[in-house]
């Protein structure tokens, strides 16, 4: 554990050194690039936290992530269950799902804005569309991993479908669903920033555009760091749940 911590800290320190050297090299050619260095970024980071200016944007982004992932869970887990239990349905749906899954969610942006307008609704749709596929796939894989003997035992004991679902299926697929949720979280967090450039006035993506327009590049870099830290924290939370669930 100590070695893992030291190696991780060494990797972060190396990244910091590369960041400093890169910003110094760029500043020799573009004077404004000096504001991208770690120290100006740290000053802006502290100011954003102390002033509280970043928090409305952060909470707006987290709310959109929560809503998008909630829709994904509501749709993805039941669909994954159906595909896992029905081989014919899986063969019917897989080609269409694979086709849709390979389309970048951002390519839908012009169409969704035309249909739903600007605001939160198109962002919710794009986040849910991007994240639902990994939940469908992981849930279906979890169902297929269930030992048929357990299902046979449930039938022999005259267990109802609800009892079988709650006592056998859900515990068996929980780890798979959490793994799919972890992948979905990463996808939604990555595409959230461009999605928040769809005419909203709050969110980390909007704030990045705002700092660019104000030429406040140290604030922009601070927001980039915040995005990385929050994403890391969310991923760590799901990994912790996976470890706890595996015990």
UniProtKB/TrEMBL annotation:
UniProt cross-references to InterPro entries, sorted A to Z: MetI-like, MetI-like_sf
Domain ABC transmembrane type-1 stretches: 58-238
Localization of this protein: Cell membrane
Keywords in alphabetical order: Cell membrane, Membrane, Transmembrane, Transmembrane helix, Transport
TM region(s), chain numbering: 65-85, 97-117, 187-208, 220-242
Membrane topology: Multi-pass membrane protein
GO biological process assignments: cellular response to sulfur starvation; transmembrane transport
SUPFAM superfamilies given in the database record: MetI-like
Any single Gene Ontology cellular-component annotation: plasma membrane
Pfam families documented for this protein: BPD_transp_1
Gene3D superfamilies: MetI-like
Family per record: Belongs to the binding-protein-dependent transport system permease family.
Name under which the protein is recorded: ABC transporter permease
The species this protein was found in: Haemophilus parahaemolyticus
Origin organism lineage: Bacteria, Pseudomonadati, Pseudomonadota, Gammaproteobacteria, Pasteurellales
């Amino acid at each position: 554990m100590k070695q893992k911590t030291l190696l991780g800290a060494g990797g972060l320190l190396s990244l910091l050194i590369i960041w400093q050297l890169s910003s110094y090299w760029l500043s020799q050619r573009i004077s404004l690039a000096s504001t991208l260095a770690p120290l100006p970024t740290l000053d802006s980071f502290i100011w954003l936290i102390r002033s509280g200016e970043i928090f409305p944007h952060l909470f707006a982004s987290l709310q959109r992530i929560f809503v998008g992932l909630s829709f994904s869970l509501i749709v993805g887990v039941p669909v994954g269950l159906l595909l896992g239990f029905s081989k014919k349905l899986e063969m019917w749906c897989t080609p269409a799902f694979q086709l849709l899954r390979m389309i970048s969610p951002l390519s839908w942006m012009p169409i969704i804005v035309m249909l739903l307008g600007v605001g939160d609704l198109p962002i919710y749709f794009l986040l849910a569309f991007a994240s639902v596929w990994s939940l469908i796939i992981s849930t279906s894989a979890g169902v297929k991993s269930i030992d048929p003997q357990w299902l046979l035992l449930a039938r022999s004991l005259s267990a109802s479908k609800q009892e079988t679902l709650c006592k056998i299926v859900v515990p068996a697929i929980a780890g798979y669903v959490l793994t799919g949720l972890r992948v979905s979280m990463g996808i939604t967090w990555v595409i959230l920033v461009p999605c928040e450039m769809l005419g909203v006035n709050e969110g980390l993506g909007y704030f990045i555009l705002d700092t660019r327009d104000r030429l406040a590049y140290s604030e922009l870099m601070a927001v980039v760091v915040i995005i990385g830290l929050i994403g890391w924290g969310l991923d760590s939370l799901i990994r912790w749940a996976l470890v706890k669930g595996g015990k």
